[in-house]
Amino acid sequence: MRRLNYIITFILLVLIIEACKKDKTVYSDPYGEGKPPLGVILSRDAIPAPANGTVGTEVTFKATGLIPYKGKIKFMFNGEPGQVTEVTESTIKVKVPPFGSTGITSIAIDDQLVLGPVFKVSGLINIDPSFRATAGANGNVNQVYPLADGRNLVLGWFTNYDNKGIITPLNRIVRTSADGEFDRTFRTGKAANGSLSRVIELGGKYVIAGGFSGYNQRTENISNITTLNVDGSIDTIGVKTYRRPSQTDTTKYFPKFNGGTNDYISKIYKHQNKILATGSFRYYVRRVYTEHNHDFTRDTVILDSTEIRQIARFNLDGTLDKTYRFNIATNKGLPSANGPVDSYMHTDADQLEKLVLFGSFTTFDQKNAGRLIRLSADGNIDDSFKTGTGTDNSISSLTYNPVTKKYLITGIFRTYDGKPAISMALINLDGSLDQTFVAKTFEGGYPGFARQLNDGLVVVSGSFKKYNNVTRNGFMVLNTKGELAGNYNTTGPFSGTLSDIIETKSTDGKRALLLIGGFDHFDNIQVSNIIRVTIE
C-alpha cells in the first residue's frame, strides 16, 4: 500500500509539470540578435605617427579590419571628423581637421563606434612648464593679487598649495613668486577658517574678505572681513573690557577692524580711500566690547546691526560709512537689487570708481533694471549707461577690458535689449550692444566666464560641449566677431569653472594667461585649480 502511494504521487507531479509547460509563453528577445561585431581594431596602444601634430597634419594610426568598410569610415579627432587619405590592411591615414582638438580618436562606421588612442593636436595655447606650482591648489582659487615687489597673494577655498600644506594646512591664503612658487616667509598661522574671496591693500594693511569668522588665533569676532599686517598676521588692538570693582584692569585683544556683514562678501575695492564691499549680505554688523552681562559679573560682546543690502562702504577702522548709499532718516541702506548681484569696479581714469552690478535682478533702488546697471562714483545710478531692457535672463559673469573699452557678459540669457544675444555679448561703454560680435549656439551647457584680451581675442570657459556645432569641451578662443579663432582651439577637454583669466608673461617672456578657479582638467591633462598657459 505504501508503495502504491509513492507511485500515485509521482504520477501527479508529472502531470502538474506537463501542465505548466503547456501554459508557459515563450517571448522573443526584445533586442533581437544584435549587430555582429565589425571586426575593426583601432589600436589604443600603438603610438600614432607622428605622435602629435598641427591642423592639417597627416597622421598614421595602426588599425585592422577596415578594408570592407572603406566607403563608410568616419574618423574623428575628439569628435571632429578628419579627412581619410589612405586605408590599408594594418593602417589608416587621416588629416587633422581645421577644428580638431586634443582628445580621444575614434572611428564611426554606420552607427557603431570604435575608440582609439589619445592624439595631441598642437596649437597656439599650451600649458606653461615654467610655472612652478605644478601641484596647484586642493580647492578653488578665487583671486591672484599682484604685489608691488612682483610677488602675488593667492586666495580661495584651499588648505594645500603645491603640496606645501600637507602637514600644516595653508588655509585659504598664501604668498607666491611671480612664477607660482610658495613663499614660506608669509606667516599666516592657521589663517582663515572659511573661504576668502578678495584682498586689497589700503592704509599699509591687507584687507581680506569672504565668508569666514576667525583668523589664526582670533577664532571669533570676525564677520567676513578683517585687516592683516604685511607679514600675514592679523591686525589686533587691545581693549580694556568691563571689570567689577574687585578686579584689576583687564586688557583683551580683538581684531582691530571692527565691522563686517552678516553674510558672504564676494568683492572688495579701494573706493575714495575707503573699502567698498559687495555680496549677498543684508546687514552691517559691529561689536561692542565694553559692556557687562545682566548680572555685572563679566564682560560680554554685543553685536549691533544696521540694515544695508548688497553694497556697503567701510571706513578704515571698520565703521559703516553712512555717506554712501544710506538713508539717514530711516537708518537703513538704499533698497539695492531685488535679486543676487555681483560687481566690477572701474579703475581706468575716465570711469574711475564707477561700480557695475550684474546678476539676476530686475529692479535696482526700486527702478527697472534688466540684470545690469552702473553706479556713479557717488553711488547713484549712472543714467549715461543705457542698457534698455537688458538681458532676458541671468548674467553669470562680467569682465571689462580698458584697452578695447568693452564689457563682456555671459549667462543663460537669449537677448540683450530685445536683440539676439545667445549666452554671451560684448557691451559698449555706453551700455549698448556691440552687434559686430555675434555669439553662436552653445550645446550641452553654457559659458560660465569669459574675458576679452587686449588684442581683441575672447577666451571662454563653461559647461558647454559644442559651439556652433564644433566640439569644444568647455574652453575656447573666439575672434572679435564671435567665431572660433584659427589654431587657438586645439586644446582638449576642460573640466570645471574659471574665476579669472589674467594676462601675464611666462618666465622666458612669452605671452601667457594665468587661469584660476575650480577646475581639474585642461587640455585633457589633470590639473588643480591654477595653471599658466602660453598663448602665441
Structure description:
The protein has 536 residues and is mostly beta strands. Among the domains are: 41-121, Immunoglobulins (Immunoglobulin-like, Sandwich); 187-336, no CATH class. The protein contains one helix and 46 strands. It has a five-stranded mixed β-sheet with strand order 2-9-8-4-5, with no helix packed on it. Strands 10, 43, 44, 45 and 46 form a five-stranded antiparallel β-sheet that branches. A four-stranded antiparallel β-sheet has the order 1-3-7-6, with no helix packed on it. The longest helix has 22 residues, at 2-23.
Mean pLDDT: 92
Strand order within the widest beta sheet: 2-9-8-4-5
The overall strand count is: 46
Unreliable runs = 1-17, 22-32
Dominant shape:
elongated
What structural category characterises the helix and strand content?
mainly beta
The percent range for strand residues is 35-45%
Helix content: under 10%
Helix count? 1
Major sheet description: 5 strands, mixed
Q: How many angstroms does the end-to-end distance come to?
A: 102 Å
Question: How large is the radius of gyration?
Answer: 31 Å
